[in-house]
Amino acid sequence: MSEEKFIGYFRLVEACQAPGCPICRCVANESRGYLDALLYEQVTDPDTRRAIRASWGFCNWHTWMLPDIENSLFGSAIIHEDLVTLALRRTERLGDRGRAQGMPSWLGALLGRQRRPSVLELYRTRAVCPACTSAADTEKRYLETMVKFVDDGDLQAAYARSDGLCLPHLFAAVDGNGASPETRTLVERTRKKWASLGRDIASFVSKHDYRNREPYTEAEAASYARAFEMLVGAKNVFGNDVHARTSAWPARPRAVSPPEGMPT
């Protein structure tokens, strides 16, 4: 049996036994594992610390995952002591236009000098959270495994018993693996699960009629929470739109070199 199947396949089979989207479960579990290993083995590793500095720390999701990791307090404190110090140094002249602007842009252009990015620009274009980079790679591997082995033994049976993929992960599976018999099979099987959920939540709603005397089934009672995850994925796996779609806080596609003299 190939290593690819061993690593992805059996963890995916196991994730199908839990409620909700199995890919969301795998991403969340491996994110915790990534952070656990980092805090235990790599807190003082220079490359790791540079990556964390470049992203100004972890994202909201992965930062608040830290307290849930056993024995994470000391390692988290070491990392964040450094990040707090850096934030103070980087923002020392924030808001002081007279000193922060430096050479006027027109004069710099006249002299052929490229303007250094401001601290705000540096923050807005900071590197992606390293835990998110790892999670994105994890997500891609599990989606590929799901599509490749969609008709294979234990995974097929486990998926049949699961809640199926969430909408974002089904789209990602099709987008990343293209049109194929395997992706069509995955779409068909997932849509059947969504249709079953639709019947459960419709029945849950209809049974709220004051004349109803029939009790809710377990599936009906859980239907609204299952619908939440079906439509948007598991809690915290996908971000919100509050900042991602505003001009004030654009997405951060890459890192930008800091202004001269600014710590990295």
Q: Helix- and strand-based class?
A: mainly alpha
N-C termini distance: 45 Å
Instruction: Using the alpha-carbon principal axes, give the shape.
Output: globular
Percent of residues in β-strands: under 5%
Question: Which helices and strands occur, and which strands form pairs?
Answer:
Blueprint: H1 3-15, H2 22-41, H3 46-54, H4 60-65, H5 73-90, H6 97-100, H7 105-110, H8 119-124, H9 130-148, H10 153-161, H11 167-177, H12 181-206, H13 218-221, H14 223-232
Helix pairs in contact: 1-2, 1-9, 1-10, 2-9, 9-11, 11-12, 12-14
Description:
With 264 residues, this protein is mainly alpha-helical. The protein has one domain. The protein is built from 14 helices and no strands. The model is unreliable at 247-251 and 253-262 (pLDDT under 50).
Provide a brief overview of the structure.
The chain has 264 residues and is mostly helical.
Short descriptors:
single chain, 264 residues, mainly alpha, 61% helix, globular, disordered C terminus
